[in-house]
Amino acid sequence: MVLWNIDLTLVDVTRVMREAYAEAFGRVTGRPLVKLPQMAGRSESEIFFEALALNGVDVSDSGPADTLLAPLQSELATVLADRRGLLAQQGQALPGAAAALAAVARLDGVVQTVLTGSSKPNALLKLSCFGLDRFLDLHVGGYGGEPYPKGALLRVAKMRAEEKYGASYGENRCVYIADSARDAEAARNGGARCIAVASGRATAAELRAAGADAVLAGLSDTAEVAGTVERLTSG
After folding, report:
1. How far is CA 191 from CA 138, 156, 176, 208, in A?
2. What pLDDT was estimated at residue 63?
């Protein structure tokens, strides 16, 4: 089983995401988004709660902060869908992403899906804009709209795949491909090997220090990507 992170691993839609998030945040909280939290390796819910604190939003009149999460996620999905054209114009699939997905798909018995901090509608939108969804079983993935930390969400995704495919995806049969130190930690906590790609904000040294089993410069060398997946699952 191979799980892929989306943002800064497969695609870069950072500019459009930030603008969409700022608009959705303002609509839901009534306050402008002045400071945006670090997003790498985090779920939409983690980003939202930290954004409330960073931007001094007083939720006492609105009830608990978590009552704003569902409206924020719904609003963000709407705002991002309205920007679908901009995603394709201003964003990009990272070099080698489509070819790497295709190469891994050719490995015997592989199931490919996603483990992402994005909610499911936003994840599907980002992938479909660049034609990457066709390589993935998105029904068994793990998404940031679900109430689990990423490590636990990885285990949930494995259980979904095991139920669907009747296979067992232990640590030596499961690989998470991502770009942040937090993702490497999530792989370890979720019982998977980790291929870290130095295409995000973290350096190769930081990814190794976080416990990644392998670190690649990018996805352009498709033979290297597929070969690393095979090597890490050979046990």
Report:
1. 20, 11, 10, 17
2. 53
Q: Which of 35, 62, 88 is the last residue of a domain?
A: 88
DSSP 108-145: TT--EEEB-SS-HHHHHHHHHHTT-GGG--TTS-B-TT
138 and 66 in a common domain: no
Burial (0-12, 13-18, 19+ Cβ within 10 Å), 215: buried
| Contact (CB, 8 A) for 98 and 59 | no
Contact 143, 120 (CB under 8 A): yes
For 44-106, the DSSP string reads HHHHHHHHHHHTT---TTT-SGGGGHHHHHHHHHHHHHHTHHHHHHH-EEPTTHHHHHHHHHT
Q: How confident is the model at residue 181 (pLDDT cuts 50, 70, 90)?
A: very high
Provide the domain count of the chain: 2
**Residue 26 shares a structural domain with residue 68:** yes
- Largest distance between two CA atoms of the chain: 55
What is this structure's pTM?
A: 0.92
CB atoms closer than 10 angstroms to residue 160 = 16
* Residue 83 tokens, joined: 């920007």
Question: 23: domain range?
Answer: 14-88
